[in-house]
Amino acid sequence: MTGVQNYRVQSGDTITGIAQRHGISAEALMRANGMDAAQADGHIGAGRADPDRLQIGQQLKIPVATPGLERSHRVAAGETLSGIAQHWGVSMAELLAVNPQFNAGKLGRGRDTGAGQDPDQLKIGDLIHRPGVQAQRPGAATPAPSTAQAAAATPAAAGGGHGIDLRRFTDPALGSDAAAAIVIGSAEGTRRPNGSYTAAYGGHTDPGNAAHNRGSFSYQHAASSAQDADRRQLQTLQGRLPAYESAARQAGLNPNDPRLAAAYLDLYNQSPSAAQRFLNQLDTLGGQPITAQRMTDLRVASFVDNATGQRFELPGGGHAGSGFANIARNQLGRAPTEAEVQAVIRADQQRRTMAVESALDRQGLLQAAPAAVPAPANAGQTQGGTPRWLEVARGELGTTEIRGGRDNPRVVEYHQATSLKAKDDETSWCSSFVNWSMQQAGVAGTNSAAARSWLHWGQAVPRDSAHVRPGDVIVFPRGNNPAQGHVAIVQDVMPNGQVRVVGGNQRGERLADGSRPDAVTESVRSLSEAIGVRRAP
Length: 537
Fold this sequence. Notes:
Layout: E1 4-8, H1 15-21, H2 26-32, E2 59-63, E3 72-74, H3 81-88, H4 92-97, E4 127-129, H5 146-152, H6 166-169, H7 179-188, E5 204-205, E6 212-213, H8 226-250, H9 258-270, H10 272-280, H11 292-300, H12 322-332, H13 338-362, H14 388-394, H15 409-415, H16 430-440, E7 459-460, E8 473-477, E9 485-493, E10 498-507, E11 518-526, E12 532-535
Antiparallel strand pairs: 1-2, 3-4, 5-6, 7-12, 8-9, 8-12, 9-10, 10-11
Helix pairs in contact: 1-2, 7-9, 7-13, 8-9, 9-10, 9-11, 9-13, 11-13, 12-13, 14-16, 15-16
């Protein structure tokens, strides 16, 4: 077994989607399969190197970023169960115990004895689980560790006010079970808000600098395992607590506030220099509630100087956020303008803030926030917490159409959640985006790219502030055509009869050339404009 896994293409798969599920970059996946990334334009070409030319049943090689740490393996030609056991350093008995599809009684005895698959007759593509890690397979809905919840949320007697216990929140002894690992891992894409793991936890490629990452924090230095990587980064974060606590108190803020602490620690994990600028600006928050939006704004201001409108210059030359410039260049296929780099920065900081918010909420840590710093009204809470599809949708803020002949593969991926399965980002995609968000949350949508298809989904809700709530799907007319419309997801309900919605195919930020390509954005609309509001069944 080498440093690859195998995957058979399924209906609706895209290179981007497959890469995301396995925690690798789309470029690494294309490279491993002899594809030309320059041909990834959303249109099927004639050559075999075209990444858009996927075929159902086609077998792809999935690079394993951390060989030996894989949690499962797809059988390749010529492999044997004993060889796989030897590679993992386990006994055949251990391997058979966690792979009940095999009949151990058939081992070495032929295929006609009893039920179950013969261990001597592996099939190419068979999924083999590794002993000792199957309970934490990426995608498994494992509950968040109770130690992380209970310990991190206790009143901080020595910390200067109620809130989270910062030392327990970042305790290296807890490793990947520490609340900070779950919260920051959610922003990194290595963990889910409930504490379970994604494929990126074992190892993946950083989109900004192409470095190899592992563990919850996307650690880029020497470590013996993902758990060891988490312990090392937690030690680093604990070392930053005195400076953070001092800066917070000098600004008249409670350092134990979960939103404030998590914003600083997550930003430090992303960029230590930006985190220092974050501390330097804490006094601008004096007397204001600590909300997710203010954390986003302050994080952006840690890369972009509000006084000049330009990214901060670094002492050694260059500008803050060089990794974002690389991401923008990859998205656009050309050198980005300063405005385009800053748009990527804001989208990323908004996405990370929302991911942190969701994880803090799911871990019960927002309940530890001091009474003097309340959460904003109607901040997306329902009886069961923030609806998962709303969390998913907010995590996509900033996804933007690509002008010209190229298409954003993420938008193309949204289309695959509908029967239309369009291959470009020019086709109206508001309904595709809502369907995709529902699909990621495990909720059946309409499977239609038509915005008005949502008028017949779920349950009808009266169109007023007293009844509409976050997570509801709202449909607006588009022009005078009775067949057209625009659909989005309600994020906030305001007492003045307006709602803030998250939607795709909405007007994005203005670029340097004056254009405003459509994107996943927030928009404020009047409920009186809506032609229907629906609630998930």
